Fold this protein.
Amino acid sequence: MAGFWNHLASYFKSATGSVLIKNDLGEPGWMESKYAAYAREGYSYNPYVYACIRLIATACGGIKWYSYTLDVDGKQQKHPEHKINRLVTRPNKYSGWSSFCERFISHLLIDGNAFILSNGPTTGDNGGKPSELWALRPDRVTVTAGGAEWDPTPVYSYDDGKTGKQPLDSENLLHLWLFHPLDDFRGLSPMSAAAHSIDLNNSERAWNQSLLKNKGVPSGAFVVKGTMSPALIADLRGELEAKFTGQLNAGRPLLLQGDTDWKNLGYNATEIDWLNGIRLTADEVAVVYNVAPELVGGLNRTYANVDAARKALYELNALPMLDMVRDEFNNQIAPKFDDSIQLDYDRDDIEALQEDRKAIFDRMDKASWLKVNEKRQETGYSGDPGGDVILVPGNQLPLEAVSLTGQTTLQLLRSRPTTS
């Protein structure tokens, strides 16, 4: 340490002015508007982005699907043995439906686009019917306009990173995308709307890490009276950084001699309001992804509002997204099997919404003016041949069992003479 002050002392003797030796913390980089940057600095580095996407993707992936046709009354008739069910149970030999769904939903939430390639035999009894589905990385798929001056038909190609771009048959490619006001062929990433908040959140963490490594001292400068050559300034800066910055040097006392002073050139943690900045940007990320802050680390966490937030995650986020996926599957994939077959997801399989189901059952149980079949249809069940009756509250007898004189069947039975 003596070397540092010996350097300074040798220049005090010929002091003719003032010199600043600035100790800077540096600045973090900024996120580019590209899939790789979104995936790296958003999903991989930012805990709130990761939490939001994982919550939505796992919520979608945890719901079971089934196939059905509509009968003459417009009611769903499930077909558990239909070949299309394989696509929503085991899309390919490497993944089940849950992990596959999480994958393409995550692509959609990171890039604004998800590409699902269907593959299967082209001849035979199953010719043209997909037997497997694959989720392609969005950054490897290129979408361009058709050959005409204005052709709304997109043209797709895929770059595997080895053989270059290869054309993709649009008939076998399902493109899910979020609305983009300035692009006719690709969707808008939610991370684009949240980019500034994510940058600020990451920057605040980088700033705090740099501050901690600098033993909590903000950026500043030594003011030295004297003239110093660039070589000496660089030498002193290096010695200062080696002996007084970093985690190993935390708490080491600094003794200033001669005409030397320290000037802060930055704000401290209180002045920059670092913690509230983290909270604000985290809330903004949650708003963009339509996820309640309570689910991603918000401070107002109680059992009651977390349960309400989990319910809202499905009702306001996962279910609308699955509606879009269902409609696109039924528009492009299901017709390859049968024009009448359809796919849907099972809302009764969602644990967070079971209380709503219970409320419906309780309400129907008390609706004494409805027929049994009307109650069954309201709770999601098909009608029963003997269910077009109204049950009287209390004894729950069919209305037809009540006589015109007001006597019930039970009263009539009691009035009959008994045999010995």
